[in-house]
């Protein structure tokens, strides 16, 4: 067991605050003390110094376990004299696979609301329940949730006497501090410092608040305006940036810094900070390792219960505000302070403020995300294993990585005649390690977004119709996404007849029909014979990808917070049935698009699944030896609607004028104040398109949701820059050459 004892990082800091008038009250110090949380640094900012004191300390939890042998190593000059390298690890999606809202459950627009800080209760990242994964998982010490490759790097660092080992997270300390220490301790990891974000927002003095001053100027002459409650936003990157500066000032012998992080936008900013440290001769080498792992999610029903509890809490807060009660502002703390040496660094500039807005009542309902051809889980597993997988051993390292799913034989043995894939990837992707690419949870053919009109549904055969989908070719876009081009199978070929349909098709290859239960057939007659009068193996199967032949999508109908499903979205379509007397059709609502199945994409490169619609170049199907595929591959699917949980839309008045400056938000989040022209225009347009898709109006009340959208757009933009700087050393010579490197 790792010994956790009180640690204080002594730094020479001044009394510089956001407002000089607040210097006497800008403390981030905490009175909290706990035996299990002795090494967690509660702040990247100092407590107020006694008069004439040159060395205020970071505030840390104290160890009250009466252990007289407590480790005081950071106070031991011999221990710290060995430091030459700082190794800094992020927590969420880096060291630990912290769950995000599951896109297989929630509509994307609702995920934006959940993860925004001030729209649904305390928001996802301030809710302790997001790290409460159930007694079984916690009893296993979160087995399967740790990024073991990063865990090993932490162990190597902590065993190296020359390394200062730091966990640096944007998690709010007062909310998550003790939980993080407990988790770290359970894993047996030994950090010198566990640093959390001390505050999310700081309340500004109403007499100095810009919003109060504006209200005062607008007030009628002779009348006093009511002070406006206004807060300073404390962003995660600024907090980390300030802390790492302090580390370098405190330990000048450290000449190398290595960071592990997952967020592209922050990585781009860290690269800029690292270059600054190199230019100022504060470091000789700066390195960033970009971490990207497959997402891991909470148990679906547990997640639904958690989110509905957040919605219920939000609606209670609405009631409080309607009765004249106070606003709910999560993560309030004291204003940040920094040291004199950093006065001109503008680490906290531009200062962003937040004026609380009245919350809106949230009503959860089921939403149709798209209508398409869906496939059973057995068919999807075969697609992942046999179409572009298997032949690349590097993709088999971890069960969560690409194309690694095992096929359940469902009582048949003909699927296991060979482990060789039937079809290889696009040519440029062959031989590449795509282990960290994202494989969609739900392989499908999108026919139209949302639900179709009655006329359109009739043209595709109606919900529940069986569709015979033939894989025609493969394609990719810019080495960052690949897909299968598909078409509706010629019925005459499958029937084995020589009618008009059969005569028009001169492809004489053997046909492989993959049925919903995973069995293979060579003709339509054989498939019909197997399924005629055959009862379903389950009563019904939801179109949600979290469903399986024995489980249904978790329901919200037993919760008072949820509304009754609408008629079209409430229909559960069985995906394990074959009705050859009611065949559907692949008819896309947008005629200019190509029917396809998105197989995998590079999220690190800012790619999204929808980008597969931009693929225009397609290649013939070939096997792993580069020979033409000897089979015609047909997968049996079903016309169904993708059902997700989301927020029932509210009616709102049209807004004629934009209230939030998208350009200013982009400059703030990228840290690039010079961005302009075409580059800025493209990013603003991308933000507007996302806002339109999510029905987010440009209003001050939606600022947090808009910021979430801007964050995603900036991440995609910065990853392109990031890759252009991949492993680029500084142009210099000599034994102490300053270098900066970025690794995937």
Tell me what the structure shows.
One of its GO terms (biological process) is box C/D sno(s)RNA 3'-end processing. This is Swiss Army Knife RNA repair protein HAD domain-containing protein. Pfam families: HAD_SAK_1 (PF10307). This protein is an alpha/beta fold and 744 residues long. The chain has helices spanning 77-80, 108-115, 135-139, 148-159, 173-186, 210-218, 236-250, 264-279, 300-322, 377-386, 454-459, 491-495, 500-503, 524-531, 662-670, 677-693, 703-724, and strands spanning 16-17, 40-46, 58-60, 85-89, 163-172, 193-197, 201-203, 231-233, 256-261, 285-290, 332-333, 337-338, 353-354, 364-374, 444-449, 466-476, 481-488, 510-514, 520-521, 596-601, 618-620, 631-647, 739-743. The strands form four sheets. Strands 14, 15, 16, 17, 18, 19, 20, 21 and 22 form a nine-stranded mixed sheet that branches. An eight-stranded mixed sheet has the order 3-2-6-5-4-9-10-23, sandwiched between helices. Strands 11-7-8-13 form a four-stranded mixed sheet, with no helix packed on it. Helix 15 crosses helix 17 (703-724). The protein is globular.
| Strand percentage | 15-25%
Count every beta strand, where a strand is a DSSP E run of 2 or more residues: 23
**First and last CA, distance:** 32 Å
Number of helices: 17
Sketch the major β-sheet: 9 strands, mixed
Going by helix content, strand content and strand pairing, the class is: alpha/beta
Percent range of helical residues: 25-40%
- Our Rg estimate from Cα atoms comes to 29 Å
Q: Per the principal axes of the C-alpha atoms, what is the gross shape?
A: globular
Poorly predicted ranges: 1-70, 390-417, 498-503, 535-570, 722-735
- Calculate the mean pLDDT score and round it: 75
């Amino acid at each position: 067991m790792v010994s956790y004892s009180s640690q204080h990082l002594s730094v020479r800091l001044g009394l510089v605050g956001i407002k000089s008038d607040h210097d006497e009250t800008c403390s981030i110090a905490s009175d909290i003390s706990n035996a299990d949380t002795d090494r967690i640094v509660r702040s990247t900012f100092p407590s107020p110094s006694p008069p004439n004191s040159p060395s205020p300390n970071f505030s840390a939890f104290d160890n009250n376990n009466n252990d007289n042998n407590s480790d005081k190593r950071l106070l031991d000059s011999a221990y710290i004299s060995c430091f030459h390298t700082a190794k800094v690890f992020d927590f969420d999606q880096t060291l630990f696979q912290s769950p995000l809202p599951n896109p297989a459950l929630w509509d994307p627009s609702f995920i934006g609301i959940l993860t925004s800080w001030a729209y649904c209760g305390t928001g996802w990242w301030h809710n302790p329940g997001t790290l409460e994964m159930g007694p079984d998982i916690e009893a296993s010490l979160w087995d399967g949730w740790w990024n073991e490759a990063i865990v090993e790097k932490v162990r190597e660092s902590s065993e190296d006497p020359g390394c200062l080992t730091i966990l640096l997270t944007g998690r709010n300390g007062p909310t998550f501090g003790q939980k993080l220490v407990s988790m770290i301790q359970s894993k047996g990891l030994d950090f010198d410092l566990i640093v959390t974000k001390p505050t999310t927002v700081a309340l500004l003095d109403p007499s100095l608040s810009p919003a109060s001053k504006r209200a005062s100027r607008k007030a009628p002459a002779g009348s006093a305006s009511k002070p406006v409650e206004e807060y300073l936003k404390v962003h995660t990157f600024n907090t980390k940036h300030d802390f790492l500066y302090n580390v370098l000032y405190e330990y000048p012998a450290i000449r190398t810094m290595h960071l592990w992080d997952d967020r592209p936008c922050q990585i781009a900013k860290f690269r800029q900070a690292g270059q600054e440290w190199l230019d100022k001769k504060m470091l000789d080498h700066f390195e960033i390792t970009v971490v990207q792992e497959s997402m891991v999610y909470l148990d679906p029903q547990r997640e639904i219960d958690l989110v509905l509890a957040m919605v219920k809490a939000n609606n209670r807060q609405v009631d409080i505000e309607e009765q004249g009660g106070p606003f709910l502002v999560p993560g309030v703390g004291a204003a940040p302070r920094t040291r004199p040496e950093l006065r001109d660094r503008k680490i906290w500039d531009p200062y962003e403020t937040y004026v609380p807005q009245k919350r809106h009542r949230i009503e959860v309902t089921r939403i149709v995300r798209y209508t398409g051809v869906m496939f059973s889980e057995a068919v999807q597993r075969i697609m992942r294993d046999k179409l572009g997988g298997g032949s690349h051993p590097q993709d088999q390292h971890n069960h969560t990585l690409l194309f690694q799913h095992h096929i359940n034989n469902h009582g048949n043995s003909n699927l296991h005649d060979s482990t060789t894939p039937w079809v290889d990837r696009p040519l440029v992707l062959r031989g590449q390690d795509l282990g960290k690419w994202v494989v969609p949870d739900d392989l499908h053919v999108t026919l139209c977004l949302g639900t179709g009109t009655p006329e359109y549904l009739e043209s595709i055969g109606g919900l529940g119709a069986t569709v015979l989908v033939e894989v025609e070719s493969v394609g990719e876009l810019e080495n960052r996404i690949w897909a299968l081009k598909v078409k509706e199978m010629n019925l005459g070929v499958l029937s084995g007849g020589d009618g008009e349909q059969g005569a028009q098709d001169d492809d004489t290859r053997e046909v492989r029909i993959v049925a919903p239960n995973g069995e293979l057939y060579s003709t339509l007659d054989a498939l019909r014979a197997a399924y005629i009068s055959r009862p379903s193996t389950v009563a019904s199967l939801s179109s949600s990808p979290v469903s399986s032949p024995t489980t249904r999508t978790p329901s919200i109908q037993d919760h008072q917070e949820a509304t009754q499903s609408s008629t079209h979205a409430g229909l559960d379509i069985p995906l394990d049935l074959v009705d050859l007397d009611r065949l559907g059709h692949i008819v896309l609502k947008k005629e200019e698009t190509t029917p396809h199945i998105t197989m995998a994409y590079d999220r690190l490169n800012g790619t999204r699944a929808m980008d597969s619609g931009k693929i225009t170049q397609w290649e013939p199907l070939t096997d792993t030896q580069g020979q033409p595929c000897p089979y015609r591959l047909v997968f049996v699917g079903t016309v169904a609607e993708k059902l997700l949980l989301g927020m029932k839309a509210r009616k709102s008045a049209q807004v004629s004028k934009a209230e939030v400056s998208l350009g200013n938000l982009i400059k703030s989040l990228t840290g690039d104040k010079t961005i302009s022209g075409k580059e800025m225009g493209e990013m603003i347009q991308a933000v507007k398109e996302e806002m339109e898709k999510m029905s987010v109006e440009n209003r001050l009340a939606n600022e947090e949701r808009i910021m979430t959208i801007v964050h995603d757009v900036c991440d995609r933009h910065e990853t392109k820059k990031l890759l252009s700087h991949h492993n680029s050393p500084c142009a210099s010579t000599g034994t102490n050459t300053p270098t900066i490197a970025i690794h995937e």
